Amino acid sequence: MERKHGKKVGRKQRFNADDVIKAATEVGVHDFTMTEIANKIGVAAPAVYRLYDGRQAVVDAVVKRAAEEMPVTSTELPWKEAVETFISNYRETLTKYPGLAEEILGNPISALYFARQWETLTKALENSGFSVEGSASFAIQITSDTTARFVLEQLIPTVQDYQLELIEKTGPTFIEFLEHARDNIGQALDAADEVATQWSEYIHQK
């Protein structure tokens, strides 16, 4: 007898690109697999491939969506306020999309999706007296530094003692940095450039 009432049992048959983007965001844009996406949506994995050619296509869609949602900086703001606004908006976006910072850090070209935000920031810098070249370079550097700092802020508190012991065998300077970083992340990150230089020199000596 045909069942006419009640909830249908079985996998979800109808879904769209937004469902895929949402699932990838929830799993983490840097770590998801296509199978995880399919399971989260409630469809078979091959169905996801009918919307996206592969994992990278989904990653690009998520990064693009994140960039579309990030507000632009007013070109009328003084340069310091413009920079602070950009960083604040960018960090909010990185927080909303787990794994986005790691993805951009590992694949810097994906940051080009944020060209609209760079354009308004560089215009604000130009209005404050920066050169065209200097403004563009500064905007890219701010994005790079903020991305790296965000990743470190997430990573440092998760470092375990046994990991510190392993690192200590190859890098005495870096181990000291990590020990202090867990107690004072902000101060440690401010000195990260110096530590990275020392670490690089140590490696070259080996």
Question: What is the topology?
Answer:
Layout: H1 17-27, H2 34-41, H3 45-49, H4 55-69, H5 79-96, H6 100-106, H7 115-127, H8 132-155, H9 161-168, H10 172-183, H11 185-190, H12 192-205
Q: What is the typical, i.e. mean, pLDDT?
A: 79
| Strand composition percent | under 5%
- Spatial shape: elongated
Runs with pLDDT <50, length 5+?
A: 1-12, 195-206
Structural class, judged by helices and strands? mainly alpha
Report the radius of gyration as a whole number of Å: 22 Å
- What is the N-to-C succession of helices and strands? HHHHHHHHHHHH
| Intertermini distance | 77 Å
What is the percent of helical residues?
55-70%
- The DSSP helix count reads 12
Strand count: 0
Query: What is the number of domains?
Result: 2
The major sheet is characterized as: none
